[in-house]
């Protein structure tokens, strides 16, 4: 079997779409399809359930995909090790992050990129369940996800910061002049939240359930951009991690209030597939971000002063 054919097959497993898989491999769709047919000839069985478009893998296809993913990952690791020996670390590093970690992920990727400019970063927004699965399947190299809320398997973890929560709401609404707001009070206001396939939403639901309450959700989305758009309109409030303020600030006409009674936090961290030896790009990423105090950057004193939250001085001194 040719390695490039296995790469095409792994790309198809990742994209679940012939056209997108061909695009990521920089080949035509007909070239990718021909490679898949060659693999089927070598295996002696169909690998894909075909219709007008990709439907799913056959049992033989799933077995080959698992094996091919390991082979491709090990070959990439070999290339990385040889490159590092020559002082030429290069390749692609795939990072999957839960949506609530994305506002401050540049605090990790920027210092790494400065040290290793020949490495291409592929940063994907994924749910925590998807991150676990994609690490298992060698699709991701690194995940940024919750460490202490739902179980993780087969990974090593490195805590990054404690996720704490704010209510972002209208400045002239019912909480005008307040310094904080309780969870029960926040739950009664019209909310726009992430969808329940996101672990952040499951965390919020569990907090409300502890109090025997339910949030008053008027809109939900799986897109951080759509969430910010709805908040910016001033019609909805939202419960967000406080790292959003570092990236977006407090929108005009709104206030950001810490949520209390109870005060809750959950650990956000880096997770990597447990393996020995650790791939060079993963090792280099961990080394590059090891000394970064993310909380000091996006919580510099008074969290809710936008000029402090977005302080370029704090950023440059930390990365």
The biggest beta sheet is recorded as: 8 strands, mixed
Low-confidence stretches: 302-319
Helix content: 40-55%
Mean model confidence by pLDDT: 86
The number of helical runs is 14
Secondary structure: number of strands: 12
- Domain unit count: 2
Strand percentage, roughly? 15-25%
The span between the termini is 44 Å
Look at the helices and sheets and give the structural class. Answer: alpha/beta
User: What is the top-level CATH class of the largest domain?
Assistant: Alpha Beta
> Which architecture of the largest domain would the CATH scheme give at its second level?
3-Layer(aba) Sandwich
**What string, H for helix and E for strand, traces the elements in order?**
HHHEEHEHEHEEEHEHEHEHEEHHHH
Estimated radius of gyration: 22 Å
What fold name stands as the CATH topology of the largest domain? Answer: D-Maltodextrin-Binding Protein, domain 2
How would the global form be characterised? globular
